[in-house]
Amino acid sequence: MSQFNGLDNLDIQVSALEATLGDAAVVAASFNEELSTIRTTLSGTQTDVATLEKGLSRGLRKAFDNAVFDGARLSEVMRDVAQTMANTAYSQALKPVTDQVGSTIAQGIGSLVGAALPFGNTGLFGGAKTASVAGYDSARSAVMSASERLGNGVQTAGPVSVVMNISTPDAASFQRSNAQVAAEMSRALSRGQRNR
């Protein structure tokens, strides 16, 4: 009977150990996420520090060149060094803000221009409508020769010309839709080849 009590105690201890290991795994995963966040932050900080270092080095070199080659006084050199440090720190501090404001303004202007300049009757990239080449008829007429438009059916060998006007609020949305644009171009070219 004592063997069974020993096995029961062992079973209880194993269950407690499993629970503890499960909690440790959760803590380790959380710790790993925090380390990843810190690594990303430090990488960005390292880039910022490198830029700051380049700016300071440039300013120090200019100040020492003034002292050695131009005979500037030490007080002027130190003032130049302090001014360079202040300007570099100020530029680095404002860079994220100015980048974000510039990006926001560019996206707003792009959205306004994209909405104001639709392609054909579709609001190409400007709304919920899908991209098209303004229908089969416009693609067909763009690649038809003059004799085909007159209806005499004369086949002429000539280059296929397809014009696509694309307006988009920003480059990223255009890049995301490159497969759609390529598919529409392919369709228009194949229509042109069939109607030559």
UniProtKB/TrEMBL annotation:
Superkingdom of the source species: Bacteria
Protein name per Swiss-Prot or TrEMBL: Phage tail protein
Gene source species: Litorivita pollutaquae
Upper classification of the organism: Bacteria, Pseudomonadati, Pseudomonadota, Alphaproteobacteria, Rhodobacterales
